[in-house]
Amino acid sequence: MLLHLWHVQRNWSGIGYHKVIQRDGAIENGCPEFWPGAHVRGHNRNRLGVCLIGRDEFTLGQLDSLERVLT
Can you tell me the distance from the alpha carbon of 47 to that of 36, in angstroms, rounded to the nearest whole number? Predict the structure, then answer.
């Protein structure tokens, strides 16, 4: 996964998100769900880190996938 490599290249241990949702709605795994993430300082324990690729507007496919991940 390119996002994991991007994090490693910056001397981090790896991706801090548990799930990454691509623009087409594809759900990719990041770090294992039983690991604390590294996505929100001070709020990583007992939280699921989800990243939607994009900036301002997300696709319907992403929003559908986000709902599946959260349920």
Answer: 7
- The domains of the chain are located at 16-70
**Which of 39, 24, 31, 26 minimizes the C-alpha distance to 4?**
31
Measured distance CA(59)–CA(66) in Å, rounded: 11
Nearest to 16 by CA among 66, 43, 61, 25: 43
pTM of the model: 0.82
**Residue 56: pLDDT band by 50, 70, 90 thresholds?**
confident
Class of domain 16-70: alpha beta
